[in-house]
Structures are given as structure tokens and as C-alpha cells.
Amino acid sequence: MRHAKSGYPDGVADHDRPLAERGVREAPLAGAWLRSHVDVVDAVLCSTATRTRQTLARTGIEAPVQYLDALYDATPGTVLAAINGVADDVTTLLVVGHEPTTSSLALALAGPGSDAAAVGEIEAKFPTSALAVLRTDATWDALELGAATLVAFHIPR
């Protein structure tokens, strides 16, 4: 998931930017969509940026959260390494991060059988609050590029 729409207040460092009014409205819509279309989230990896933390809080998703500095301004490889460290008992993981990393990683993980329309939408744009849903039979520590199937892409509005 990409964080919800953030504001740009004067004098606030990028890491500390809060959600804009639109983000405050749309993050709960993303959470509602997740709860109705995805298995119960067992764990969350979330960037430490203010906007990602606020996004997660407004989704209403209740699961153990690991806030990681490394997810802020991360490369897709950094995020995949964090995912590779998730415990085997987690079946559904939510990652809350930033662009362009979120779209790059979703596309890189999407292997054979992925929803072509969803791939095309992500290639065009991965807007704020958007969610890419990927499924895999791999364990978290064995997840690698191309080893998942992109099954849905949703933009809550």
C-alpha cells in the first residue's frame, strides 16, 4: 500500500509531512476495502514517516506493526529484504510505503498469471492510498522477484 495523500506544510521535513484532508478521508476507505477483499492482516511493515504511520492508523487494520526506518526512501531490494525477515506464521502481510518503490516492487514481484489489467494500471500510476494485492506460495524468507501473482489493484476514492 502506498501512503495516503500527504500535505506539504512550510518548514516541515519530508519525513514529517502529515496527511492532507484527502488522505484523512481516503485511508479509511483503503482499510475498508482491505477488510472486505483480503484475508485478515497478520502483520504490518510500515515506514516511520509521519504520513505512513497516519495512513496505517486510519485504515483501522489491527495487527502487529513493525515500523522500519529502512522503508523510508527505500529501494525495492530493501523492502524485499524486510519482507524476507517476516515470521513464517504470518499469512497476510501489509506493507505501507512510498513511491516509486511500492509500484516498482509490486511489478517486480508479479510473475506468471498476474492480472494484466492490474499490471497496466500500476505501470500507468500508483496513486496515494492505492493497494496492490499479491499472492504467493513462497515462504517470506524465500520470496523473490517474479514469485508472486498480482491479483488485484485498488484505488480507494
UniProtKB/TrEMBL annotation:
CDD domains in UniProt: HP_PGM_like (cd07067)
Highest taxon of the lineage: Bacteria
InterPro entries, per the entry: His_Pase_superF_clade-1, His_PPase_superfam
PANTHER family: OS09G0287300 PROTEIN
Name of the featured protein: Histidine phosphatase family protein
Organism for this UniProt entry: Mycolicibacterium grossiae
Phylogenetic classification of the source organism: Bacteria, Bacillati, Actinomycetota, Actinomycetes, Mycobacteriales
